[in-house]
Structures are given as structure tokens and as C-alpha cells.
User: Fold these one by one.
Assistant:
Number 1:
Amino acid sequence: MRSISILGATGSIGSSTLDLIRRNRADWRVVALTANCQARELAALAREFGAELAVVADESCLGELREALSGSGIEAAGGRTALVEAASREVDLTVAAIVGCAGLAPVMAAVERGGTIALANKEALVSAGEVLTAAVERHGATLLPTDSEHNAIFQCLAGNDISDVRSITLTASGGPLRTVADLSTVTPEQAVAHPNWDMGAKISVDSATMMNKGLELIEAYHLFPVGLDRLKIVVHPQSVIHSMVEYRDGSTLAQLGPSDMRVPIASCLAWPARMDTPCEPLDLPALSELTFFAPDEDRFPATRLAREALKAGGAAPAVLNAANEIAVAAFLARQIPFSRIAAMVAETLARGNMPPAPRSLEEVLQVDAATRARASEILELA
Ligand code: NAD
Ligand code: MG
């Protein structure tokens, strides 16, 4: 039996993880489950899985959580410090499935205890790149990439020498708007209606703007040190090939699978072994064809912005991420049109002096907070 904590247990990745655990209850002891606020849903999960601890990051929801857990013997806690404390409890595997830079401090806590972390929370790695990877090294922690593309690359690299890699290609579905002619009238409902994947609202909008692929480019840069020039992006609308690795002898290894996050999550849960999932196997004759296109960075500039942020270095990726979080929230709240999202990120990156490269978690969080304030100002001025 292995122990597990799930940060962001009520979300899309959290639910898919718990679905797999539910099917293999005898294999797992659930230690901590966390959510932002969804107290009743979290309490129900904590009771179902016999968790030791349930944490709401938003302290104002703690009363409701306590009430929903009364008589269960399950510990309830609330607030950012409690979230970090939960992440620092000893477990065999931490699933990092909080959305946004809000997940960074708990990920860092799991890293600092030298844990094994199934990392879905890409924004943590984008914001804190060097700081987080250095901490992983220093504390002997293990990051298991859970994002489907990075999990695919991780699988294609297994057993091979990274110095033999000629290039890594991230596949992108192109999102729900790839073939939509007029991007100026896109509504939040259209943007979150992903053709292949069922995901949380923020990453769905990121897929529509292609910022998701931009964030994933930065994520890949830190996870797989082959250099930015060897990282490519190709649009592959069927989302069957989840990414590929080309070796110097001309061999390209690809990982294929259904568009179901339970496949990469299962790969992390069972790593380095394998486990059963209920996912539909691929039906290649039914698919009949796989197609590939170069990304259109004139219509979807986000991947270019991400590449430029990586090249600029320093705090630029953290600034890009924070500006994007503010812009996506504003779009979902119907405060800005779809096309303003990437424009706001570009403006925030261009405005003022770029802070130097953060050297600690605190400095990353300072850049994040300052950028949020700056992006909110840009929003109000518009
Ligand atoms: P989601 O919105 O469905 O769930 C997010 C979870 O985080 C919820 O449990 C929520 O309560 C919690 N949360 C939200 N804000 C918080 C805060 N401020 N503090 C603490 N907890 C907070 O998101 P998701 O789609 O499951 O995505 C989670 C992460 O995984 C994201 O970083 C996303 O990019 C990544 N990811 C998701 C998918 C997918 O298929 N959903 C695929 C690849 C990567
Ligand atoms: Mg992905």
C-alpha cells in the first residue's frame, strides 16, 4: 500500500486521479486532499477515501468544511499555511493538481521534503523554473510529468540518453478555435468547449489561445534540458500522438493514446510499473487519419510570446504566467474580449523594467504579485 496526497482534489485532474484510486482502493492510503473552497465536495471526498486531512486554501470556507466533516475524525484545516503544511506531510506520492501559480508554494513544500511529485500544475514550473528545478536537485525530489505531452516525452525518453536527442516535438490540438475565422466575437462558452479534452476552465481558455502550448514549451524546457532550439510545436488536431522525441540516428519515438488524462495520471501513479485503466483503447482504423500543421503564430501569438519570454530569461516567464492568469480570469468574467488575452500578456511583458531572475520561492511570489497588480492596472486603463 502506498500513501498519496492530492492537491487540487476537486478539480478535473484531481477527479481523474481519484477515479483511478477508487478502482484500486486497496493499493492506496489517502493522506491529504485539498481544494480552494469547495468545502462540501471536498468533505465528501475526504470521507469516501478515508483521508487523514482535508484543507481549503480559502480560509473563509473552513467553517463549512469543519461542519461537513464533523464526527468523521478527519482533520480540517484552512488557509495558505495549512495548504503548505499539508503538502509537506510525508507521502509516497503527491499529485500537484492546483491550477495556477497558487500551486507553487505547496509544490515547493513537497519538493523540499524530497518527495515524488506527479506534476500537473504547469504554472508552478513556468513561474519558478530554475528555482524549482534547483530545489528538486538539492532535495533529491522526483518530478513525474503528468501533463499529457510531457508524460509522453518522459515515456519516450525512458532508457535513452538525453544527449542523443535531436529534437522534441510537442503536439497541440490547436484548440476549439483553430478553424474559427473571427476571433473577436469568441465567448467564454466557445473558448472552453474543447473538442478533445474535458478540462478546468483556465486551461481550456489557455488551449483556445494556445497559451497552454506556450506554457508547455516553458515546462518542457525545464523538464527536458535539450535547449530551446530543439523544442518544436506541431498542431495535430486528433490529439492521438501526445508528443514525440527524435533521436540523432533519425528514429522518432511517439506516445499515442486516447484523449483521457487518466492515461498519463496512471503512468505517474504506477511509475515505474504500469496499471490498468478503464480508458477506451485506440481504434486506429476508426480514426483513419492523423494530420499535422505548423502553428499559426499570427492568429495565436501566445507560443511566440512564451518563446520570447524564455529567451529574455530572468523573471519574464513568471511575468508571462501571472499576466496570463489575470487576463484569462478577466475574459472568463466577460471584462475583456478573447483577442485581448494575448495582447495583455504582451503589454505586461513590454511595460516597465523586467525584474531580475528570482532566486527563491519568495522572489518568484513577489514577481507574481507585482505582475498581477500591473496587469490589473492595464485592465482598468483599457
Ligand atoms: P480545475 O480548475 O478543474 O481544478 C483546480 C483545483 O485547484 C481545484 O481542486 C481547485 O479547488 C483548486 N484551486 C483552484 N484555485 C486554487 C487556489 N487559489 N489555491 C488552492 N487551490 C486552488 O483545474 P484542472 O483542469 O484540474 O487543472 C489543474 C492543473 O493541471 C492546471 O495547472 C492545469 O494546467 C494542469 N493540467 C490539467 C489538465 C486537464 O486535463 N484538466 C491537463 C494537463 C495539465
Ligand atoms: Mg498538456
Number 2:
Amino acid sequence: MSRFDLHSHSTFSDGLLAPAALVARAAARGVDVLALTDHDDVGGLAEARASAAAAGIKLVCGSEVSVSWEKLTIHVVGLAIDPANARLTEGLAAIRAGRSTRARRIGESLAAAGIPGAYEGAMKYVTSERLVSRTHFARYLVEAGVVREVKDVFKRYLNPGKPGHVEHAWATLPQAIEWIHAAGGQAVLAHPGRYKVSKTGMRRLLTEFRAAGGDALEVLSASHTPEQFTEFATYARLFDLRGSTGSDYHGPGESWLDLGGLPPLPSGVVPVWKDW
Ligand code: AMP
Ligand code: MN
Ligand code: MN
Ligand code: MN
């Protein structure tokens, strides 16, 4: 049976490894099929694709699209997309465009909370001139000794109600799904267990996702507990969605789960790769 890891990041967004190094690591970890899914961009896919051939693994072209839904930011992973599709690349460019202004405002908000120089500090960690993210701020806040670890930053900063939070309008849910479908891909609701919603809210989200043409649910994710693997396998069956799996790997020392580190998809869930 092939080992799938369908969610990962490179230096083309907020990952620590260049696409070639990421692919090499996936191959060394026994991954047979890897999707590179950088946030709101497809820039790393050419390098990833070229190195996958040499490493003897299959590379699935992907992107993780930022979406504003109700009061939340959610993520929709597009898998098996054509990275050259103009509808997709123009859509992604449009939602990337606001990131620089947002970053300046994040810096101002942190300065107002007594943390100066965060914008300049975050910029040192940016590895693609096309994309600055909260992760880059988180890395600087760790460097500055404000917080011990990247994952702890988000408990005190950069999230709603906390210093460094800035409202931002990403794509709508129907837009994200439409761009992914235009590029021939499948739309996967990423790490659903991370969204702060009630049971009713989750049902509303899944209903809207399904109605907008969404294809699959990320049942297995490093963000999920084993109980949530079961919970979202049930949701996938209930809402007639396929199931996906992804470590959401960002890099050594930062992600607790390595590439390919998740168990097999629970039985009864139709894999998103069924027709690949
Ligand atoms: P952005 O797209 O700029 O809003 O940044 C979102 C990124 O921040 C995510 O893709 C994660 O890499 C990171 N992030 C958000 N919340 C957490 C968390 N609780 N722990 C670790 N990383 C997080
Ligand atoms: Mn990220
Ligand atoms: Mn995400
Ligand atoms: Mn991700």
C-alpha cells in the first residue's frame, strides 16, 4: 500500500525546507505520494516536481487556499491542480496581495502591545518575496525571547482578541473551490478540527462546503487527536465527502509530526486519491 502525505509547506510559503529538500526528506521517510501545498501560491511546484522524479516519488501539485468564512479563517487545500491555470493563479495572486499591508499592521499592533521591531524581525524570516505570514512573526517572537516556541505564540498573539491580530478578507469558500476546480483539482477542507466552531457550526460549514462543490475532508492531520480522526471520518461519511491525509509539515524542529507520519486512513472513508 502506498504512503500518502497530501499537505506540506516549503520556503515558497512558511515552510523551512526548499521544495527539493522537502521532497528528498519525504522520500527518505517512505512517502510514496507527496503533495506540496504552499499557502496561496504554486511557485514551489516546478522545483518539487523536478526533484520528485529524481527521488522516485510521485508529486501531487497543490496549494492551501486561505478563506474567510463567517468570522473565521479556514483553509481549503487544492490537490491535483494544474499550477498554470490562470483562474487559479490570478485568484491566488489577489489574496496574496493584501499580505504585505497586513504584515505592517501586525507589526503596529505588536508595537502597541510593547513589542517593537516585529515587522522588521519577521521580514528576516521571509523566504519568498511573494508571501509573508504569521508564521514569520511567530519565528521572530521566539527569537526575541517573547515566547518559547512557535506553537505557543498563537496562544497569546496573532489570533483574534490577542495582540498582533489583524482582520483580513481572504477568498470566499465558493471562490476557493471554484478556482481549484477550474484548475482541474479537488478541494479538501484542511484540518477541520482546528476551527473554533460548535457542533452546529461544523455542520453548517460542512453543508456549505459540500454545497459549493467541496470534494474531501482532511480526516488525518497533525492538528487532530486520534479521537478526531474517528470524528472526522464519521463526518466524511455523513456528508458524502472523500477523506484526505496530511502532516502539514513545516520543517525540522517546528512540526512535531514528520512527513509521512500519520496512520492509514480509517476504513469506510473513500480516499481523495481513489480516481488518481
Ligand atoms: P497566515 O496565513 O499568515 O494567517 O498564517 C497562518 C499560519 O500560521 C498557519 O499556516 C500555520 O503555519 C501557522 N499557525 C497558525 N496557528 C498555529 C498554531 N496554533 N500553531 C502553530 N502554527 C500555527
Ligand atoms: Mn503554515
Ligand atoms: Mn492550514
Ligand atoms: Mn498547511
